[in-house]
């Protein structure tokens, strides 16, 4: 049996549910996605929220956690859980990064999936003006 | 080998590049469209949607027929993308491998009828669809791979 992968998207404020809304449109509704939206109503630590979610994760599951800012308080509070061997934390999430990891083959080891997805997601960040202009220059040279 | 032939009037976009490509394990996307094949700017912007693990080819309908029917390309796992029902008919006349067509996205236009969340068809398109059905081709409606496959005719 392949391992069940579960996902948590954690952000300051409502970015996490915003990303979830985009995922529902692009990928279609999926189960196994948890959200944490920190500091929306009160300025309290998210440790209890994380512990509540961890109750849904068995030792045979893998939990991939997407956080917004490396070094931000959301990532830092979640980082305390990194010693659990079935938890994988990926910071600086973007929509393409999350899509690639969500849809990855569960036969491929998660560490490989994450490394590849991060590289591909970096390529998604582009100054489109420059891309278009350099492409146009190349076309002229042909 | 064609894994899916998809009608989508946005051709390649996030859903196709990031969701359908891994779901079908395809390694080659072909955009078959006479207008785009002649337009360097459209070709460039479509090229931005190229998935990391697949190649993206943009060809005219004639070029697509020659490419897909060439035995040399049989080992490719192809996602064939077109933007109209008419082009689906033109290609299926020439490519015997097309036995099923996915209606993925056709935005509403004058006189069209919305038959699912993402697909709207005109009377003319329904007529062409009937010709496709008469050739024994399956016409199914799904926006994303996890959608239930619905048959086009059941939705009209």
3D structure, described in words:
- The complex is a heterodimer of chains A (142) and B (156).
- Chain A has 142 residues and is of the alpha/beta class.
- The relative contact order of chain A is 0.16.
- A four-stranded parallel sheet of chain A has the order 2-1-3-4, sandwiched between helices.
- Chain A has helices at 15-26, 47-54, 73-79, 95-102, 110-124, 128-141, and strands at 5-12, 33-38, 62-67, 87-91.
- In chain A, α4 (95-102) runs antiparallel to α5 (110-124).
- By secondary structure, chain B is of the alpha/beta class.
- Chain B is 37% helix and 26% strand.
- Chain A binds chain B through residues 26-30, 95-96, 99-100, 103-105, 116, 120, 123, 126, 128, 131-132, 135-136, 139, and chain B through 14-15, 18-19, 22-23, 40, 44-45, 48, 52, 143-147.
Distance between the termini of chain B: 30 Å
Global outline of chain A: globular
Query: Kindly, what is the distance between the CA atoms of the first and last residues of chain A, rounded to a whole number of angstroms?
Result: 53 Å
Helix content of chain B: 25-40%
Helix content of chain A: 40-55%
Please give the number of β-strands of chain B. 9
Oligomer classification: heterodimer
Query: What are the segments of chain A in which pLDDT stays under 50 over at least 5 consecutive residues?
Result: none
- Label the structural class of chain B: alpha/beta
Question: How much of the sequence of chain A is in beta strands?
Answer: 15-25%
The pLDDT mean of chain B sits at 95
């Amino acid at each position: 049996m392949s391992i069940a992968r579960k996902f948590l998207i954690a952000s300051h404020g409502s970015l996490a549910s915003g990303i979830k809304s985009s995922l529902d449109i692009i990928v279609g509704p999926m189960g196994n996605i948890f959200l944490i939206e920190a500091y929306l109503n009160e300025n309290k630590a998210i440790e209890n929220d994380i512990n509540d979610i961890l109750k849904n994760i068995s030792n045979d599951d893998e939990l991939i956690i997407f956080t917004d800012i490396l070094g931000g308080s959301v990532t830092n509070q979640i980082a305390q859980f990194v010693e659990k061997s079935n938890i994988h934390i990926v910071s600086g999430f973007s929509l393409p990064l999350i899509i690639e990891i969500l849809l990855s083959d569960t036969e491929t080891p998660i560490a490989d999936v994450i490394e590849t997805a991060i590289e591909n997601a970096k390529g998604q960040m582009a100054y489109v003006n420059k891309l278009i202009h350099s492409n146009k220059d190349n076309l002229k040279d042909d | 080998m064609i894994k899916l032939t998809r009608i989508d009037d946005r051709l390649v976009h996030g859903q196709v590049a990031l969701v359908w490509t891994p779901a079908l394990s395809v390694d080659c996307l072909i955009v078959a469209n006479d207008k785009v094949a002649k337009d360097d700017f459209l070709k460039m912007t479509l090229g931005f949607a190229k998935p990391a693990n697949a190649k993206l080819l943009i060809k005219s309908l004639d070029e697509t027929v020659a490419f897909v029917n060439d035995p040399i390309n049989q080992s490719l796992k192809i996602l064939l993308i077109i933007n109209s029902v008419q082009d689906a008919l033109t290609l299926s006349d020439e490519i015997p491998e097309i036995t099923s067509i996915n209606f993925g996205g056709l935005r509403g236009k004058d006189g069209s009828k919305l038959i699912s969340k993402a697909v709207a068809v005109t009377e003319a398109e329904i007529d062409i669809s009937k010709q496709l059905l008469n050739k024994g081709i399956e016409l199914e409606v799904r926006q994303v791979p996890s959608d239930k496959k619905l048959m086009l005719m059941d939705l009209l």
